[in-house]
Amino acid sequence: MVLATNLGYPRIGARRELKRALEQFWSGKLDETGLREQAAALRRAHWQLQQRLGLDQVPANDFSLYDHVLDMAMVVGAVPRRYLRGGDPATLDLATYFAMARGVEAGPTGEAVPPMEMTKWFDTNYHYIVPEFEEDLVFRLTSTKPLDEFEEAKALGIPARPVLLGPVSFLLLGKTHREDLSPLTLLERLLPVYEELLQRLAAAGADWVQLDEPCLVLDLEPAALHAIEQSYTRLSQAAPQLRLLLATYFGDLGPALPTVLHLPVAAVHLDLVRAPHQLELALAETPPTLALSLGVVDGRNVWRTDFEQALSLIERAVERLGPQRVLLAPSCSLLHVPVDLDLESELDAELKQWLAFAHQKLQEVVLLTRAANEGRQAIAEELERNRQALQRRRTSPRIHDEEVAQRVRQARAQRAQRQSPYAVRRQRQRAHLQLPLLPTTTIGSFPQTEEVRAARAAFKNGRLDVAGYEAFIRSEIERTIRFQEEIGLDVLVHGEFERSDMVEYFAEQLDGFLFTRNGWVQSYGSRCVRPPVIYGDVRRRGPMTVRWSTFAQSLTSRPVKGMLTGPVTMMQWSFVRDDQPRADTCYQLALALHDEVQDLEAAGIRIIQIDEPALREGLPLRRSEWASYLDWAVDCFRLVSASVRDETQIHTHMCYAEFGDIIEAIAAMDADVLSIEASRSRLELLNVFVRYRYPNEIGPGVYDVHSPHVPSVREYEQRLLRILEVLPAEQVWVNPDCGLKTRRWEEVKPSLAHLTQAVQAVRSRLESEQGLNLRT
């Protein structure tokens, strides 16, 4: 019999219960017992829901209080020494866990300890905590979370399948601080911990265990594939009674497919949404003892599954392998989609029938499983409804706009570029802007307080009229401008108080987008985002940011940046239509933003920032596809920015990514100033730009905005001096890592005041030591 399964369920809860519990705990309003009770209640609700829907196997240990990679680091004892009290791994507790994730004001030595580095999970908008491996690290089983949650599910009568991040991906996703130490050299030390954990799960009554090895869809060196073979040979022998499912997702296995299919495991999961072509290759290679788990329901996007297309794959597999050797599942964990479409009572009826969230996707898995076991006639009505919904979507007049399509064709034929080379623009901008050496700024947003959120909510539900809401926004902007002037920032921002989200705000003013009330997904920790859905061609209705930008500029003589989200990020952080190439959608967004940039410049805004934090995130997982993606992604950015005068300064911002892979593309974007996240990596990310000799100006982030830690003046000075060891002062801007939206004013005010004080001290030092002119 074909089995209905799932690789992982959203952790946050249908109403973001996890977010609220975490933030209450961090603020001292909920104790550890209360947090653990609420987490257990969420797990129980999620397991029981999946069981009721009809799944044969329900994932356990897919839940996390912050991040599943951080969880695995805690399980195997990969805890950097700076977080250990007395250097003893036995002291690991929830305080240690959150210190690793968020930093702590007073660590084991009494001094502030920054959080671990965070970066994007493959090509998603989820962020994971990067494991750190020290040369003398001794792995040991220091947390029994996977075992505890399996036993918790078992006690509820749930047919649970524990989920573990596999040992090779765990190491490859981590880092060492020595170039001559490869994480894979630690595999021999790590495997005994996995063996012990599998043995304990088997003793507790587990039948299947899912081991995720998503790194198998990357371009791997032979050593990594050898590590996979070595690992699964040993793990299959550690607890022979266990059936191991090796899960891969986000792409095709490519040259690794034969190796993976001949591992001594019970089943291999294949992503057949992103890579349906690999099924035929797998069926030709699959040995007679191996089952295949078919990922036929999209775990990354919100569109309904095409049942006809999915069943053609399923029936082919059942025909070749037999029903006993086929499992059905979403393509990946459902962590990346909202929880339940049924909560969207106000959504446009026509558009709603095109969508499926996590709950509905599992219903699709169960229906497809029934069809595989009983024949298509068993779901004949559902098949017909599915066919009609897909046909209505394909033929809907709300999707296509010929005028937009014509503009895209013209834009793609022309290749945008700035009027003059950077060296010319730089001199004209310096004369125009008259900024000091080491100019200071922020990335854009300021704290979104309870008062800001309450005012926005009151406006949206009609309890606050337009005049009242706009008066509130004006007062917040003016207060923020005055604060920035008071502490001495050189380039100001308006604070973005009118924006609920850096994508949603723009999407609400563009045709082709739809919005949800409860479509939240986890970005990291308690941070949730509500991506809009791009369902049709994109068109700007009118100016989107000019009014508030010009109001802010009217309050000060200092430059105020116009703040835009770039086209690639708008696309990456939305659920994107799947009925046309992504490049076409990106060009549509770029044209809308191009028109906005022209309006900002015409209104007198002298500096315009076009954020592209998702440029690296959008990079295909296979290098063979990089050139094509980067070509149109960079062209879209230049389409937005290239029409301005030389005197208008274009900034962009990027964060939480490995920039070395795309440094040439970043340079080709030709932004006048680039700000980057750098503080969490201890400024290591800056080395890429130094080695490349990045020509334009750059602002390495010196304030980690994802930690509650308030840096001292001395900390800032030390970071600035480190930066100036490798970059000339004339090239450097000083700024936080990212926007300040999620921080509290009580943290932001001293942090930014300390930043400007440190810059003044360093400027004075440079002037006395080198005789530099402080006016650049």
Terminal CA distance reads 73 Å
* Low-confidence runs: none
Radius of gyration: 26 Å
Helix fraction, binned, reads: 40-55%
Please work out how many helical segments DSSP would assign: 27
Most strands sheet: 8 strands, parallel
Number of strands: 19
Shape: globular
Q: State mean pLDDT (0 to 100 scale).
A: 94
Give the strand order of the largest sheet, numbering strands 1, 2, ... along the chain. Answer: 1-10-9-8-7-6-5-2
User: How large is the share of residues in beta strands?
Assistant: 5-15%
Report on this model:
With 776 residues, this protein is α/β, with parallel strands linked by helices. Helix content is 43%, strand content 11%. It contains 27 helices and 19 strands. An eight-stranded parallel β-sheet has the order 1-10-9-8-7-6-5-2. Strand 18, helix 25 and strand 19 form a beta-alpha-beta unit. Helix 1 (17-26) packs antiparallel against helix 2 (32-53), helix 17 runs antiparallel to helix 18 (466-487) and helix 23 (626-641) runs parallel beside helix 24. The longest helix is centred in the C-terminal third of the chain and has 26 residues, at 745-770. 50% of the residues are buried. The model has no long low-confidence stretch (mean pLDDT 94).
What is this structure's SSE topology?
Layout: E1 3-4, H1 17-26, H2 32-53, E2 58-60, H3 68-76, H4 94-102, E3 118-120, E4 127-129, H5 145-155, E5 160-165, H6 167-172, H7 187-203, E6 208-212, H8 222-238, E7 243-247, H9 257-261, E8 267-271, H10 278-285, E9 291-297, H11 307-321, E10 326-330, H12 349-352, H13 358-374, H14 380-395, H15 402-414, H16 422-433, H17 450-460, H18 466-487, H19 504-507, E11 510-514, E12 521-524, E13 527-529, E14 533-540, H20 546-554, E15 561-565, H21 567-572, H22 582-602, E16 607-611, H23 626-641, E17 649-654, H24 663-669, E18 673-676, H25 686-692, E19 697-700, H26 713-726, H27 745-770
Parallel strand pairs: 1-10, 2-5, 5-6, 6-7, 7-8, 8-9, 9-10, 15-16, 16-17, 17-18, 18-19
Antiparallel strand pairs: 3-4, 11-14, 12-13
Helix pairs in contact: 1-2, 7-8, 11-13, 15-22, 17-18, 22-23, 23-24, 26-27
